[in-house]
Amino acid sequence: MKPLLAIETSCDETAAAVIAADGRVLGEVVRSQIDDHQVFGGVVPELASRCHTEAIDGVVAQALERAGLDLDGIGAVVATGGPGLVGCLLVGLSWAAGLALGRGLPLLAVNHLEGHLFAPFINTESPDFPFLGLIVSGGHTELVLAKGVGDYELIGATRDDAAGEAFDKGARLLGLPYPGGIAVDRLAQGGDRAAIDFPRGMLHSGDFEFSFSGLKTAVRQQVERGGVPEGQALSDFCASLQEAIVDVLLRKTRKAAKVHGIQRVVLTGGVAANSRLRAAFEEAAQAEGWSLHCAARHHCTDNAAMIGYAGLLRLRRGERSSMAVDASPGLSLGEVPT
Ligand code: KG4
Ligand code: ZN
C-alpha cells in the first residue's frame, strides 16, 4: 500500500501528514491559528473556516515536500469527519474528497477522538489492546476502555466543562492569553501546588464521571475576593488550579484501572501536553506497574498524523467512505462519519 495523505481541520489547526503503510510519519505540518484568534480570547468559528481555506493548499504541499513525495506517491486520502466545528470540518473534508475524486483514490473520513485515542501509537505498526484511555482536550474528557479498533466502552466523561476548558476558562479569569492551558502550565512551574485548596469535582461520586464547572466558579470567587494575583502569587494560583485538575484526572484513572483490571494506560489529547499531568501519570505508572503510553507532546494537541494513523488502521480493514460523506460535528467516540 502506498502512503496516505491525512488532513485535520476540526478546530483551529490546519494540519496535513503523510503516513506510510507501516504507521511511520513521513512528513507532517501543523499550522496553528492561535495568533488569528488570540485577540478574541477564543476560537471564532467563521474566522477559523476562512483561515483553513487560505492555509490548506500550502500546508498539504509542505507535508508532501517533507515526505519527499508528490501526489503520484499517495495511495489514499483521509480527513477528520467530526466531531468539531462544522464549517472547519467541511473545508478539510471537501478538500480531501475533491482530491480523492480527481485522482481516483480511496477516501476515508476519520473520527477526531479516535485519532486522539491512538496518538501514542503513531510510528508503530499497531496499538496494543486492551487499554484504558484518558482523552483530555479542549472539548472532551473521556475515560475509555479500548478493546480493539472501533470497540470502545465509555466508562466516564465530563458532565459539564472539559479539562481543557477548565484550564482555558481559569486562565481567562486570570487575564492570561488563549489557549490558557499552555500559559497555566508555564506559570505553574515554580508555584506551590498546595497554596489554594481548589475543589475536586465529583471526586467521591463512586463512578468515573467528571465535573469541572465548580472549579471555574471557585477561580472566579477567588479572583473577586483577592484580585488577579501577580508574581509568585500568580504562579502559586496556577500551580493550585492545575493540581486540582490533575488530581481528579489521575485518581479517577487509577480507580478505573483497578476496577477493570487494566495495566496499560493511554494519556492523550491537548491537555496531555501538560507537564504536571504527565509527571503525575508517570509516577502513578511506576507505583501501579502500568505500561503508560503518553502521546508525544506535538501529537497531544490537534495534528494530522493522528488522523492518518487512525485512518490507516481502518483502511487496513477495508473501510472506505462515500465521496458524499458529510461533516459530523457532534460525533461520539466509536461512531464513524457517514
Ligand atoms: O486536543 P486539542 O488541541 O483540541 C481539541 O480537540 O480540543 O486540545 C486543546 C486544549 C486547550 O484547552 C488547551 O488549553 C489545552 O488543550 N492544552 C493544555 C496544554 N497544551 C494545550 N492544557 C494544559 N497544559 C498544556 N500544556
Ligand atoms: Zn482535538
The dominant shape is: globular
Distance between the termini: 24 Å
Q: What is the H level of CATH, i.e. the homologous superfamily of the largest domain?
A: ATPase, nucleotide binding domain
CATH class identity of the largest domain? Alpha Beta
Low-confidence parts lasting 5 or more residues at pLDDT below 50? none
The computed structural class is alpha/beta
The tally of helices reads 10
Classify the fold: give the CATH topology of the largest domain.
Nucleotidyltransferase, domain 5
The distinct ligands, each listed once, are: 5'-O-[(R)-(carboxyoxy)(hydroxy)phosphoryl]adenosine, zinc ion
What is the makeup of the main sheet?
A: 5 strands, mixed
Q: What's the order of the H and E elements?
A: EEEHHEHEHEEEHHHHEHEH
* Beta-strand fraction estimate: 15-25%
Classify the helix fraction into a percent range: 40-55%
Extended strand count = 10
Our Rg estimate from Cα atoms comes to 20 Å
CATH architecture annotation name of the largest domain: 2-Layer Sandwich
